[in-house]
Each structure stands twice: as C-alpha cells, then as structure tokens.
Design goal:
The structure is a homodimer. The radius of gyration of chain A is 19 Å and the shape is globular. In chain A, helix 1 crosses helix 6 (about 120-130). The first copy, chain A, has about 230 residues and is mainly alpha-helical. Chain A has helices spanning about 20-40, 45-50, 55-60, 65-90, 95-105, 120-130, 140-145, 150-165, 175-195, 205-220. Chain B binds a DNA duplex (30 and 30 nucleotides) through helix 3.
DNA sequence: TTTACAAAGATAGTAATACTATTAAATAAA
DNA sequence: TTTATTTAATAGTATTACTATCTTTGTAAA
C-alpha cells in the first residue's frame, strides 16, 4: 500500500490551488528552492517565473503576492510538522517522552521520513528557521489572522500544549511554553549558526546542544523545585 | 547639572554620522516615527525625505540603505537598554532581584525615564518588538556580523548572562538563556497583542502576564528541583 | 579677504520590483 | 458547431532602491 500525505490548505492563501495543477506544483517546488538559495527578500515572481518557464502573470494567478506564498509554504510546513509530531509520539507512553521527542523534532534537521512528492522538507525546515517569523511580523497580522491563515501554527502550538498539560496539569502557561519551545528551537539554532556568541554552543554547531538547553528549560519549568 | 546620554554607534552603520547634524537627527527622529506608524516594509527613503523636507539623495548621504538604518536604530535601542538596565540594577543587592528587574524592563512598555533628545524610546521599543528580528534575519547576517554591527545586542546579552551566572554559577546555558529572555519578552508580548491563542494571556493584554511567565521559566531553570 | 571645502539641496536618470490590463489561444460545455 | 470559460502571452505602469551630477551655502583656514 502506498501512502501519500495530502495537506489541505486554507483557501484564503491562494487564488488557485497550486496542488491541483502541474504549474502550481512547480511554483511550490521552485519557490522553496529559490527562497532557500537566496532568501525571501531577493526572491521575486519574475525570477521564479524564469526558472520554471512561465511568466510573472502566470504566478499571480496562483498567489496574490509573494508574502502570501511565503505564508503558504510556512503553513504547509507547520501542518506537516504537526502530522510528523503525531506519527512520532503516539507510540510513546509517557508525556515526558513525547515532549522530548517533540523538542528533538523541532530542533534537529529534518531527516526526510514523512514523504511528500513536491515539497523538499529539508529545505523547507531551513527556510522556516530563517524566514518563518516574517509570515506574521507584518502590519497586517491582524487582518491575516482574521482569515485564519495562521491556524496550522496555532494547531501545532495547541497540540504541544496538550502534552505539556499531561506532564503537569497544574502548569500555568502551557500555550506560552509551547510557542516558546517552537520559537526558541528555531532561533537558538539560527544564533548558533550565525551569531554564536548569543548562545553557549560556540562554533560546535551541534543540534543536540540546542536540544539540551531546551530540555533543561522545559522540564525545569514543568517540574519545579518546591520553593515559593 | 544636566546629564545627557550619548551613545556611540558603530561607524560601519552609517556613511555620515546622523547625530552630528540637524538633518541627521531629523532622519533618526522621523524614521522612527514612520516605521512605527506603517511598518518597515512600507517605509521608504522617499517618504522619509518628503516628511522632513529633503530629498532621497539627502538621506542616502547618511545611510547606505534602509536595512542599515533599521540596524542603526535597533542597535541604538539595545545600547540604550543596556544603559538603562545598568542604571536600574546597580543599586540592587541580589542577582535574583536584578534579573527580575531586567525581565520587567524588557517585557513592559517603556516609561521614558532615561531621556534622550532626538529619540522617542517608547516608539522605538514597539518597533524593536515588531521589526527587531529583521535586523539579523537576512542572507547577509554573516557579513554584517563581521562588521560587528550586532555588538550592542551581544553586549546586552553578555551583561545579562553575567547576572545569570551570579544567580547560579553552575548554570550551563547563561548566554542562551539570556538571548531567550530577550527574544521571549518581545515576541510573547507580540503574540499576546496580535496572535493571543499562542499565549495563555487571552485578550487581557497585561504586560505583567508575560513577566510572570518569564520569571517562572527563568527561575525554575536557575534553581531546578534536584532530579537528574 | 580671499580661497577652499565640506555639507546640503536640486535635478535627473536607471534597473529592478510588484503589480495590472489587454489580448490571444486552448479547451470544455451547449 | 457555436459559445463560454479557462489559461497563457504580451505589454505596460507606478513605485522602489538606488546613482550621478551639478549648484548653492555656510564656515573656517590662508
């Protein structure tokens, strides 16, 4: 039996569903490639069009603008990651083990185990680390949010919060801790690689250092010393 | 006696020192105003020039491009904040109290106590919360970093790390915890106001909620329960 | 007092970006 | 077959992010 993961995306994110046509799938595949290669700022629809042999207008038929395309691929990533987290944790008994596994998934590079056809998850993971915050760091967050385009991120955050509460039902900040784990995993890794003096991991560049820090942080908070 | 805070900025950040001329000071003042009002993406040198009655070329004599100007004002903020942290903590005895004070300073809105002439620190604080990460989330971080333009951020991070070690000399991640405090303070506040379901603070929008979360997180990590 | 020289202002120009509009070709429904 | 409708191709525009050049003005050393 052949399984293939199909992620249903929010329809507000696109003008035409890119998963349904060859050109659409090329747009996703190559935008990931180009953004990964040169960064979101230097990414343009013109360059993308050139790369896949279509025109700018061709791409505008699928996406309103390049920010929406970024939100699309970032959201896709969060959905994919939630699925991946589910797959890797539901055979684990204790919530502590689940949480450790989640931290590990968030903080290490992707080994391409949950396969999809037209998306390179490894590149996408690196894109999200560097460009992910730009999806919501805009003046139009509020309107974007009303269109529910950040739902995948929130869903992942909610799913982790549930496990946090299983670890300690009395813990007061499950959602904030959850979003903190996600964000810290990404930017400590970014700092480690690019601004190492903001971390304690020097030039070692070992994902497991970030994992160590995060586990320390999270489990100390969930199982605190009995001081007032 | 009149005191005025003069912050020496890295000379790589500008072509001509904006603090030294009237036009330069107008550039800083009004770029803060405009970026605060409409966001960094929609900010252009043309709009800025129009606002202060000069031309684009006039501004290009001071800053190479708008990203450098962003880094300039963000760096200025970090330097200012390090000074402010110093002022507010050196009368405190215990490092725990110092750390609490620092968290408070980072997570609350600025009350304009450490005065400067041509910078509105309140606006600047809000800019850094939303746009600060864009200073380093670029493809040219590495080259930028070689020019030491992120030094103020690192210095602040270093200063907090020292206090963290005073709290617990055995703590293994002083720098990562330090950068985490800074980042979490900003984006939990951003989430609280813009994407509240990523936090536990609902629509309450109370800075003290973020402070509570951060204190819990930090002190649990620094004084953990004795489990291995 | 002249010279000089740096800062600011004015004007123009360019390549690239982020789009929009129009028209033509292909395909599907009636 | 005719007629819609979708899809593609071409062209065009306003704005952005610059660069270049030339003139004026204040200021300060010779």
């Amino acid at each position: 039996m052949e399984l293939s993961l199909q992620i249903k995306m929010n329809e507000k994110l696109f003008l035409r569903n890119p998963e349904e046509t060859e050109l659409g799938r090329e747009i996703i595949l190559n935008s990931i490639f180009l953004i990964h290669k040169a960064g979101f700022e230097s990414f343009t629809f013109k360059k993308l069009a050139l790369k896949i042999g279509t025109t700018e207008a061709g791409i505008y038929r699928y996406f309103e603008n390049k920010h929406r395309l970024l939100v699309y691929i970032v959201s896709w990533y969060w959905s994919w990651l939630e699925y991946k987290v589910m797959v890797h944790t539901n055979n684990l008994k204790s919530p502590e083990l689940k949480l450790k596994k989640i931290i590990q998934i968030l903080a290490t590079d992707v080994k391409d185990d949950v396969q999809t056809k037209h998306v390179d998850e490894l590149l996408l993971h690196e894109i999200v680390r560097m460009e992910g915050a730009k999806a919501y760091l805009t003046r139009h967050v509020t309107e974007d949010n009303k269109q529910r385009i950040f739902k995948p991120y929130k869903d992942l955050c909610g799913a982790i919060a549930v496990i946090i509460l299983e670890c300690n039902p009395k813990y007061k900040y499950p959602r904030s801790l959850s979003s903190t784990i996600i964000e810290v995993a990404h930017y400590q890794n970014f700092f480690m690689k690019n601004l190492p003096s903001l971390t304690d991991f020097g030039k070692i560049k070992d994902d497991w250092k970030v994992i160590g820090f995060l586990e320390d942080l999270v489990f100390a908070s969930l199982f605190p010393a009995t001081r007032k």
